[in-house]
UniProtKB/TrEMBL annotation:
Protein's cellular compartments: Membrane
GO molecular function: actin filament binding
One GO term of the biological process aspect: nuclear migration
Originating organism: Operophtera brumata
GO CC entries: cytoplasm; meiotic nuclear membrane microtubule tethering complex; nuclear outer membrane
Entry keyword set: Actin-binding, Membrane, Repeat, Transmembrane, Transmembrane helix
Protein name, per record: Nesprin-1
Length: 78
C-alpha cells in the first residue's frame, strides 16, 4: 500500500499547478491558477488547458455549443 505524506502531496500539487500554469501562459490572453481545486472547479480554466494542449478550439464562444459532433454526442457526461 502506498502512503503519501502531507508534504509529498503539497509538493505534487504545487508541481502540477506549475505545469498547468506553464501551459496556460501560452494562450491569449494568458491564464493562471493558484489553487488546483478552487480554480478548476467551474471548468473554464480546465477547458482552456485542454485547448492549449490539443491545439484545438473545443467550444464555440458565440453559442457555447460543442465544436464537434463527438462533443455533441458525449454531452455533459464527459
Amino acid at each position: 500500500m502506498l502512503f503519501v505524506t502531507d508534504e509529498q502531496e503539497r509538493v505534487q500539487k504545487k508541481t502540477f499547478v506549475n505545469w498547468i500554469n506553464s501551459h496556460l501562459s501560452k494562450r491569449i490572453p494568458p491564464m493562471r491558477i493558484d489553487d488546483l481545486i478552487y480554480d478548476l472547479r467551474d471548468g473554464t480554466k480546465l477547458l482552456a488547458l485542454l485547448e492549449v494542449l490539443s491545439g484545438e478550439k473545443l467550444v464555440s464562444k458565440a453559442k457555447g455549443q460543442p465544436s464537434s459532433t463527438f462533443h455533441a454526442h458525449r454531452g455533459p457526461h464527459l
